[in-house]
Amino acid sequence: MDLTALAAYVSGTTGPVVLDAGDTRLPAELRDLLVTTPGKRITLTSAEVTPGGAALVIAGPSGDVWPVQGLPGVRVTLSRVTLTLTEGGTPPVTGTATGVLPLTATVTAPVTLTRGAAEGPGAWRLTLAGDVPGVAPTDLLSLGRPGGASLVPVPSGLAALTTARTVPATGYAVTFHPGTSFEAYSTVTVPLPGVRWPIVPEILELDGLEVRAELSTVSFAAVVAGQVVVDGVPLEVGVGLRPGTHWYAYLRPAPGRAFPGVAALASWIGGPSVTAAFQAAGFDGAAFDLAVERIETGFDWKAPAIDYVEVASRLTLGALEFDVVLRLPDIEVRGSLRGGPVPLTEVLASYGLPTAGVPSTLKIHKAGLTARPRRGSYLAELDADDVWQAGPIGIDEVGVVVSYREGRGFGGAVHGVIALGASIRLGLVAAYDPVEGWSFAGETAPGSRLAIGDLVAELGDRFGVRDLPEAVTSLALTGLRVAYRTGDGGFTFACRGGLTIAEAPVTLAVDVAVARPATPGGPRPVSFRGRIDVDAGGVPLRFDTGIATGADAKLFTAAYSHVPGAATPDVRSVVAAFWPSAAEVIPEGIAVDVRDVVFAADRTTTTAYLFVADLGATVDLSGLPVAGEHLGTAGVDPLRLVAASGPIGVEQVRKLNALLPDTVAPLPERDIPAGVAFEATLKAGDLSVPVSLRIGGAGAPAPGTTGTSGTTGAPGSPGTPSTPGTPGTRPSTAPPAVPATAGVSGTQARTTDDVTWVKVQRGFGPVRIARIGMTYRDGKLKVLLDASISLAGMTLSLDGLAAEVSLSRPAAVPVFSLRGLGLSYVSGPTEIGGAFLTGEIVYEGHTYPAYSGGAQVKLKTLGLSAIGSYVQLPGEPSLFVYAVLDYPIGGPPVFFVRGLAAGFGYNRRLVAPPIEAVAAFPLVAEASGQGRAGTTLADELAALAPYLPVSAGDYFLALGVRFTSFEMIDSFVLLAVVFGHRFEVDVLGLSTLVLPAPGAGAAGVTPIAEVQLALRATFVPEEGYLAVAAQLTRDSFVLSRDCHLTGGFAFSTWFPAEKDNGHDGDFVVTAGGYHPGFPVPAHYPSVPRLGFSWQVSPQLSLSGSAYFALTPGALMAGGAVNASWQDDSLHAWFDASMDFLVAWQPYHYEATLHVSVGATYTLPGFGNNTVSAHAGADVTLWGPDFTGVATVDLTVTSFTVTFGAGDRSAPEPVPWDRFLAAMLPGRDTIVTLTPRGTVPGPAPRPGDLGVVDAAGLVLVTDSAIPSTAGTRGASGDALPVNGAATTFGVGPVGVPTGGVTSVQQITISGPDGPAEAAFTYTPVRKNLPFALWGDKLTPATTDPRLVTGMLTGYEIRPLPPVEPARRPWVHRSALLASTSLAERPGVIRLEPPPPFTASADGPVPREAAIARALADPEVLAARAAVARAVLDGAPAGPYALDVAGLVEIPQVAAHV
Locations of Low complexity compositional bias (predicted)? Predict the structure, then answer.
């Protein structure tokens, strides 16, 4: 480096001197320094060159602005630069600069920049040139940050961070690398004298604070340091500043001082509660305190609260020493091993754990500790560094877990890993037993990819176990568990994997147990035990497997025993789990309580599979109705389902049985043919017959083939030898049934309806059984009996006698059924025949068996028929009987009785049919001879069911008579009284008139008229309803059967009753229905028009109709006639109709008439043009006076004609007197008074109530004229109305609503004057006709029928008695005597009364004699003395004894 040349070069430069790193005239060492400056140059305003031997100093003022790399926005403005070059120096060139640096918006600090060896390559160090006042610590921390943002929040209590202070010259420095992308590194040290920071008051309060920070462009580390005293020990605390509120701090003692103890720390952070918990944990901190190396605490300055304190120290447990950290206040310890390896036996011994059998070569080289002294628990996890040899297998990665629990002492567990081949790796855990030694057990991790070949090879190579069963070697291994015991040296390999036995893969778990050789070097005994887990339709099942070895290694069984209470599997699903194709021919839904299931495979020569399910379904036939009690022990048991893919010989069956567990019933030791069948034993008395019910076709399919499934036909069909009377079969999709000749044995045969029958021909008392059959259908096994009962010449055939058990419902009990009984008896002229059918009745959601039927008794001269039904309800039966005597009894021609009918119902309700169904109602049709041909008993009973429902607590009686009148009218009338829950009277009838009367010579001749009228009357007082209806049936005609007669009549009225029907006061009388414009209320009867309809010929039809109706609002009537001719092209018609509406007060009528006549003709050959002509008239009439308007419509024109009085004027109102006389009762009866609760006796005088019972007395006033108000007494006190309607009009009189005042005044007097205040008054409301009390003078069909809720009277009741202010009482002492009355002489005298002889006087003299006796002074004095003695001071009653109070004058003795 040529310093002389450099000095000459710089000195010779005029003006500013620019030292540029690119100037080659400068020495390389100087250029290297210039490279580290911003812009790679330094500009001096003027240069001062000072040579000094081996050194050269170049200095001068400068105005360069240097950005501080890494602190955006921070710039130093230089004032002077000095460069020192030293020949041979290190470094050869150094540089310093002075300038100013803005620290805040208002404070600029003088700074010094230095470039030398200490700063590192390319680095410049910026320091303060002196103390700088007016700067806050946060100003320095945020210098160069975007926006000047603070990196940390300022806690409350530490506002000094943002308060301006004096920064010492050493308080801020920056190292940066100009011209690069390197980070800038800053240090901040700002003392905060006199500031106290209460982080957590009374616990963590710092004095002597100082802010220390180290920052870079991308990192931040700041600490507020202070002092705190704990247990007298001054500690330096450094709080790390960070985002959020949870901060941490270190604590360290002053030099030469020790840390405080953990007990003192616990007391410091938590006070007495933590101290007590620390002491209760039993933690011995003496040794721990001596080794404390570090303390750290965490806190939330916002809460404020201490989060934790961690104390780092050392801890010795047994033979192991740990580096640990104690965390307070949780009092938890975590640590790791300190020092070198320790023998495992030494460690176990130090904890009092067994060491027997533990290899001495195992040493602990790694350990972890977790302790919770508060809970009294410690846990150490230790790793050993050698192999534990277990027989022929080595256990690697041996580890030990040592635990301590207060009250239990030390415990431990050993674990390790073994490898079997390349694919099998298991983790083992060992436990120690003083007798059995160490026991290791472990299994592979789920999802491991395992190879059964590795296990087979290991068993052969290490244990000498070869020739394993096929079930093991074929296993697709998915899991393996190994167990080893040092005591007996035995291994167990529990294998789990997939195995396909027939078709479907299953999961097999098999245990291979390998024992220690009996002699050293000898073979190891081995055994196999397995199980299969399958999913049978969502029900998990476990099968115990039987695995053969040696020559029989290809025999395999899987057996399942059902556990009571466990889920019941579906048999078909169980088969499908092993053998899907065979499951297709297994019936669906068999899920009865399965006792056990066996699946077997035989691959010794040919492959055959066998499935046997022992079903827990037994059928006890002794429960059969009627016949069961005579059969003794009868039933079906056991019941099995057997499916075989091929024949299996008896010898193979015996070998398979040897593999089954004892809990499973053995297979039947016989040759088992291919196929699927139910096998059972049918028992009856001493009879026991095996039967096999084949299912599907020839047999179960072999694996890999497809079976045929379907539903067998229903058992029994008409005319077949199976269940007589059973409904017919349905089509079957199953393979063809085995022919009847292909039965299992000579004693049983299978019919075409899939019933297997066994001939019995045995008698069991009165029961005779011809055959017993068995069939299966829809998941149910049915046992059928072809049986009858004979008693004393009478034979009962049992139709459809069967017992059925559901194989799809595990909890189902056998269901016994009897479709019916056939009755037959013949003896001389007496014949009895009948049929009784079994059915079901649903009552209150429950189904009960019902027996319904009919019988006929034929004698020589007469016959009696009856129908009935019986059902047993809980507690009592429900039944009805209805009998008909069809025998002429006689009588006058007008009422000649031809038959009688009677019936009753118990817990049955009779529902009367609607009028249109009376003719077909079985109780009427049966007795009137109107039953339709082809109607069976079952049809008749089914038709009766909705009219005679079961109803507990309801009853009915019915009586009917059939009679003729002059042989022309055939009638039947049935009177029924229904009682129980409600009272109802019904009358049903049917009358048929035939003209001329049928006679012997009139057979086959169509009568000129036949009229059939149905009658229905119903009276229900509880509901306030009376209705009478009559209606022509569809069998009515006149002149020709094509001339049908129609029409009906009805009368209905509604009156007040217990149950408000909402229609009281309403009524209707109608024949043929109502006016077309009348809106018929829903509660009015529907009545067809009176009329006829006659198709005279194919071309001519005639019809007509008429009606009449009377309602509270109006009277209406009308009629219509129609004639029509239709013949090819010609159509002609005539129509006429008339409708009347009549009001009676004032008399007014309105009518409409319509007449139309016309014809149309279609002309052929001219494009089918139609020519028409018609004439019609529509006439509207009203009056009085008679007035009308007629509109005439002709083909070519129409016109209107007015006739009569002219204008359509409104009718004149009726005068009130006339309305009163015509529409209301007489003046004396407009208001009536009706007493209730009176006592029977002589009729009271007018205006007197007579003798009454005050407790039940009710007086009811009723006014024919509604009231607008009610008053009582002479003062006219208003009575309540309680919402009753009090405004109305009088339509016929022309008075509008609100124009009437009608006050009902009630006056009551007694012996002491007015007595109205002694009673209560309740309004009586009624519905009255709108035509009378509405506001319409002229009626309309749309008017309301009634004005509802009108005030018509009051119910008057006496006020309840008032309790006296002072109740009468008698002191007990007054009723006691010092001497017993029986011992006091003269107190009680028993003397016979004088003989009584009645006076011969009449009632009037007797009444006078009694009145004299009551008024006698001596009698009055005696009565008063008795009252004073018994009730001293009691108020006297207002009334004395009076003859008027006697209901009847008693007899009087003659001597009175």
Answer: 700-732
Contact assessment for residue 971 and residue 992, using Cβ atoms and an 8 Å cutoff: yes
List the one residue out of 381, 394, 403, 362 whose CA is nearest residue 484.
394
Do 399 and 367 sit in the same domain of this protein?
A: yes
* Averaged pLDDT for residues 383-407: 83
Q: Residue range 728-742: average pLDDT?
A: 29
Q: Is residue 249 in some structural domain?
A: yes
> Does residue 330 sit in the same domain as residue 352?
no
Question: Strands, DSSP E only, in 1061-1146?
Answer: 1067-1071, 1090-1095, 1100-1110, 1115-1127, 1130-1144
Mean pLDDT of 1302-1307: 90
Angle between helices 1403-1415 and 1417-1430 (to 10 degrees): 60
Within-domain flag for 310: yes
Query: Cα-flanking dihedrals φ and ψ of residue 184, to 5°?
Result: -100, 140
Q: Evaluate whether 1190 touches 1152 at the Cβ level (below 8 Å).
A: no
Q: Is 834 a residue whose pLDDT tops 90?
A: no
Provide the sign of the torsion angle of the four alpha carbons 482, 484, 489, 490, taken in this order. Answer: negative
Is the pLDDT assigned to residue 712 strictly greater than 80?
A: no
Range with lowest mean pLDDT among 128-132, 536-540, 1099-1103: 536-540
Burial, 194: exposed, middle or buried (Cβ in 10 Å; 0-12, 13-18, 19+)? exposed
CA–CA dist 926, 822 (Å, integer): 21
Q: Is 1412 exposed, middle or buried (0-12, 13-18, 19+ CB in 10 A)?
A: exposed
Whether residues 11 and 41 share a domain: the answer is: yes
Q: Are residues 112 and 13 in the same domain?
A: yes
Nearest by Cα to 221 from 231, 212, 230, 234: 212
Q: What angle do CA 672, 676, 682 make, to 5 degrees?
A: 80
User: Which tens digit of pLDDT belongs to each residue from 1091-1148?
Assistant: 989 888 888 888 999 999 888 777 889 999 999 988 878 889 899 999 988 866 667 7
Contact (Cβ atoms closer than 8 angstroms) between residue 1370 and residue 1431: yes
Q: Can you give the pTM of this predicted structure? A: 0.45
Rg (CA), the chain: 60
Do residues 221 and 215 make contact, with C-beta atoms less than 8 angstroms apart? yes
Beta carbons of 928 and 886 less than 8 angstroms apart = no
* Beta-carbon-side half-sphere exposure of residue 968 (alpha carbons within 13 Å): 9
- Residue identified by tokens 């107190």 is 1387
Is 665 within 8 Å of 596 (Cβ atoms)?
Answer: yes
Query: Which distant-in-sequence residues (6+ apart) come within 8 Å of 866 by Cβ?
Result: 854, 855, 881, 882, 883, 884
Sole residue written with tokens 């019902």: 850
Please indicate whether residue 860 or residue 106 has the higher confidence score (pLDDT). Answer: 106
Domain count, the chain: 6
Domain that holds residue 241: 219-339
For residue 1335, what is the DSSP state?
Answer: S
599, 609 contact by CB (below 8 A)? yes
- pLDDT reading at 719 higher than 50: no
- 306 plus 410 within the same structural domain: no
Q: Are 608 and 645 in contact (CB under 8 A)?
A: yes
Q: How confident is the model at residue 96 (pLDDT cuts 50, 70, 90)?
A: very high
Count CB neighbours of 289 within 10 A: 18
Q: Is the dihedral angle over the CA atoms 866, 869, 872, 877 positive or is it negative?
A: negative
Query: Left, alpha or beta for 1289 (phi > 0: left; psi -120 to 50: alpha)?
Result: beta
**Amino acid present at 1348:** T
Residue 1036 pLDDT > 70? yes
Q: CB of 1011 within 8 A of CB of 935?
A: no
Domain finish residue from 314, 339, 364: 339
Does one domain contain both 1192 and 1232?
no
DSSP characters over 22-86: T-TTS-HHHHHHHHTSGGGEEEESS-EEEEETTEEEEEEE---EEE-TTSTT-EEEEEEEEEEEE
Q: Is the pLDDT of residue 741 over 60?
A: no
